[in-house]
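User: I'm preparing a small set of examples for a lab meeting where we compare how different chains pack in three dimensions. I only have the primary sequence for this one, and I'd like the structure in C-alpha cell form so I can line it up with the others. Please keep the answer compact; I'll paste it straight into my notes.
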Amino acid sequence: MTASDTLSVPTSVETQSGRSTSSAAAIAIVIAALTFNQVLAFVNASITPVTPLYVMAAEVLILAAAASLVWNRSESLYPLSVALAAWLVFAMTMRFQLDPKVLRDAFIPVLFYFLGRRCGTPEVCDRLVALSIAVVGAFAVIEWAFLDTYIRWVDILGYYLAKGSTEVLPGGDGPGLFTSGIRFEGRTLLPFLGEHRVSSVFLEPVSLGNFGAIAFAWLLLRCRAYGWAFFGWSALVLVILILGDARFGIYLCAGAAAIYLVAPLVRPGLVFVVPFVLVVGLIAYASALSGVAWDNTLTGRFLLSGQLLLTLDGWQSLGLAPTDVNFVDSGYATVLSQFGLFGAAGLWATYVFGTPAATPAARRFKLFVCFYLILLLSISTSFSTIKTAALLWFLAGAAAEDPPVEPGEQCFTAGPPRGGSSPQHTALA
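Assistant: Understood. Below is the C-alpha cell output for the 429-residue chain.
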C-alpha cells in the first residue's frame, strides 16, 4: 500500500468520530422538531411577532437538516421519494389544490425513518429518549406550577393565532392556553389537579399524550438496557401523562405492553388489513347511529370519525376531488382526502411489508408503530405533526435493523452500512 493509499482510507477513529458527529446532529434535529414551536411561542410573546412564514421556515430547515444526513445513504430513498412525490402532485393537480403541507406530511415519516436507519444506534436512541423525557417533563412541571408566569413568557394561544391556525378560538377560562388546554368537564386522571392540562413544549396536550406513549414504548423495548433507570424514566412519563390528563396516551402505553407480548404471533398481512377493516367499521358505526351527536369520549370520537368519513364520495376517497370539510379529529378521512386510497395503501404496504424486522425487538417496535398509527388515525389528525412524528419515525428507523435488547451492542459494524444493501435486508434497507 502506498502513502497515498494510506491517506485515502479513513481510520477507525476518524470513522467513529464521523458517526458520533452524525448521531449528535440527528439528536439535535429531533429535539429541534420537539421544541421549535415553544421557541417560536417565546419569540412571539417576548421578542417579536411571529408570522406563518416563521413556522414554515422552521419546519423546512428541520426537514432539510434531516435530508442532508440521509440523501446519499440509501438507494431505496430515491425511488420511494420520486414515486411518492409524483403521486401526490398528480392527485393535488387533479383536485386543483397544490398544498405543500401534503408533501410535508408525507415526507416527515420518510426522512426521519431513514435518519434513524442512518444514525440511530440503540445507545443513541436511549440518550435521545431520556433527553426528550427530561426536557418535556421539566417544562410540564414548570407550566403546571407557575402557569401565569409561564403564559407571560410563552403565550400559547397568541402563538397559534399569530401563525394563522383556524382551530383556535380566543376566550375560555384558560389564560393564553390552547383550546384543549382546559378540560371543562373535569379531569379523568387525578381530578384534584384542576381543569388545566399541561402541554409542555408541544403547546397542546394531544401531542404530549402521543409523546408519552412513544417514549414509554421505547423504554419498555429497552428496559434491560436501562436497568433500574427504566422505572425512574417510566415514572416521569407517567407524571407527564397525568399532568396533561392524556387519557389516550395512557391507553397507548397499556397497549404497547400488550402488543409486545403478542408480537411473535402477529403476521404482516393481518396488520396490513386492520386499518381498512377499521375504516369500514367506523363508517358502519356512524351509519347505525345516524343523527346522534358525538361527545368527547372515546366512543364519541369514533362516532365523529365515522361521520366525517361518510362525507367523502368515491373520488374524494381516491384523493382526486377536492373537499371543503374540516376533518378535525378524523385521521383516516384526512389521509384519504390528501393521499388517496391508493397512495395511503401504498405507503402503508411499504412500511408493513418493505421494512426490516428480523429480530424480536424489531418486530415488537414495528408492531407498536402500526398499532399507534391505526388507533391514532381513528380519533385524531395529530399523526402528521412533526413534533412527535420526528421522534416516532427516527426510533422506527433505528429499530428496523437489529435493535439489540442488551446494552453495549453497536449497530455500526463491519459490512454494509446502515441504509445500504445486504441479502437479509428488505425493500427499505
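A couple of notes for your slides: Residues 1-14, 170-175, 403-427 have pLDDT under 50 and may be disordered. The chain has 18 helices and no strands.

User: Perfect, thanks.
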